[in-house]
Write a structure and sequence with these properties.
single chain, 440 residues, alpha/beta, eight-stranded mixed beta sheet, five-stranded parallel beta sheet, 15 helices, 18 strands, binds [cytidine-5'-phosphate] glycerylphosphoric acid ester
């Protein structure tokens, strides 16, 4: 019996896949098909897979072509599988020509012609073309636009900005095509709002009232009452209102949260985060695009605290250094939190420099995340006995913005219902922003 083995993602199974499987089957008597697991796809840069693993396995099963279906979960598994199942032939489409020659050491390698003119990417794009309008003039808008290219089925519909600010040439050209915020939402299914925090509420409300989904840089609003109002509109219109704290969508951060919930450091007793970026701030002429520290960094710094310890802190103590002539502009802020059984603190600053690290202390050990912790692809779990320490690395492309956009898309498509930044956390973040910005 000649055993043939092949692998694929098989997202939205199509004629190209099926032709490949038929020809693979014809190479022998027994066909093993490896279907890639989501995490394995993500680790090799395929973040857009639209169907779940089980949907893709079921589609392969229904072809009746596979004598055995296995799941491909890790780099190097092909060698293990060829040995385990005593495969005589490994085959894959010609788009991989040369990439698997090393398997010749274990079995015969055959590349079969790829079927031109059809691809999962194309099918995904047709399924879900989402037009996203951009709002704002800072560099983060450039990054967001560039990251949209990595998410299938998403395209930029235009940009509304107050001046060119820090926009790149591509976006500067686009500005003239959209004369107002209303004109932008008319040609968009969703908007990404990165304007000044003081403009968020009106823009978020207008977009939602016009049936447009919203992803907004945090803080989404400047007061809790404004936020509950826009949340109610989103709820009533069944629209997505997403708090755009990109750290929340990074793989490393989410794995870290799961490990903590699983007790890897025991009971968490303290969470300390620091986020600073020293900006050129002139008290006499404050550039409009520079946000104060609690708005620029507060949401990010608060996120792990509220995710790990919850939002029911008992007391807070705050210290801010503000600009002499702009009492609502904090150059540096420290906020300490007292919980029933834990403490926490944030240190944030646009006019100060410190070590941008995060330390999460527990009864069995602690987690250390080096600067810049908020866009990390790496963290350590450390114990009393250093030989027990563990290091974790996770892919983080483009500062994690593409994962944020994908989460937004999946929330809109209804593929996921869980928002990485819950309205409760968003609201508590806004409460802290209010407290710190309250200059009374
Ligand atoms: N394929 C094809 N014609 C197409 C599209 C895909 O022949 N129009 C082939 C691919 O060459 C591959 C198989 O169908 O052999 C599955 O393709 P994908 O689902 O895109 O997965 P891919 O990442 O290419 O799988 O490690 C090997 C990879 O897992 C191969």
């Amino acid at each position: 019996m000649t055993k043939v083995i092949t692998y694929g993602t098989y997202d939205f199974l199509h004629e190209g896949h099926i032709r490949l499987l038929k020809r693979a089957k014809a190479l022998g008597d027994y066909l093993i098909v490896g279907v890639t697991a989501e995490d394995f796809d993500k680790s090799r840069g395929k973040i857009n897979v639209g169907q779940s693993l089980m949907e893709r396995v079921e589609a392969i099963r229904q072809t009746g072509l596979a004598d055995k279906i296995i799941i491909e979960e890790y780099e190097g598994q092909k060698i293990d599988d060829i040995r385990r199942y005593e495969a005589d032939i490994f085959t894959v489409g010609s788009d991989w020509e040369g990439k698997f020659d090393y398997l010749n050491e274990f079995c015969k390698v055959v590349y079969l012609d790829r079927t031109e003119g059809i691809s999962s990417t194309e099918i995904r794009s047709q399924n879900q073309e989402l037009r996203i309008g951009l709002v704002g003039e800072t560099n983060i808008v450039n990054k967001f636009k560039n990251e949209c290219r990595f998410v299938n089925g998403v395209k930029v519909s235009g940009i509304f900005a107050n001046g060119t600010g820090y926009l790149d040439d591509e976006l500067k050209k686009l500005i003239s095509e959209t004369t107002s915020f209303e004109a932008l939402i008319d040609k968009s299914d969703a908007v990404y709002i990165a304007s000044k925090p003081s403009e968020h509420y009106n823009q978020v409300k207008t977009a939602l009232e016009n049936g447009v989904h919203v992803i907004c840089e945090s803080p989404v609003c400047m007061t809790q009452s404004e936020f509950s109002e826009v949340s109610a509109i989103a709820e009533e219109k069944r629209l997505v209102l997403m708090d755009g704290i990109k750290t929340a969508y990074s793989i490393a951060f989410n794995r870290m949260m799961l490990l903590i919930k699983g007790g890897i450091i025991g009971e968490t007793l303290s969470v300390d985060t620091t986020c600073t970026s020293l900006m050129d701030i002139d008290d006499n002429c404050l550039p409009p695009h520079i946000w104060n520290s609690i708005c620029a960094w507060g949401p990010t710094a608060l996120l792990p605290i509220f995710k790990i310890l919850g939002t029911d802190f008992k007391q807070i103590m705050k210290f801010s250094k503000t600009l002499p002539s702009h009492r609502d502009f904090d150059l540096f802020t420290k906020v300490s939190f007292l919980y029933d059984n834990a403490v926490a603190s944030i240190k944030v600053g646009q006019g100060v420099k410190s070590e941008g690290e995060m330390v999460i202390a527990g009864t069995k050990g602690y987690i250390y995340v080096p600067a810049p912790w908020w866009k990390t692809d790496y963290f350590e779990v450390r114990y009393e006995n250093p030989s027990d320490n563990r290091r974790y690395f996770y892919q983080l492309e483009g500062e994690g913005i593409r994962y944020e956009i994908l989460s937004f898309l999946n929330l809109i498509k209804g593929k996921v219902s869980y928002n990485q930044v819950s309205p409760k956390i968003s609201s508590k973040i806004i409460r802290i922003v209010e407290e710190v910005s309250d200059t009374k």
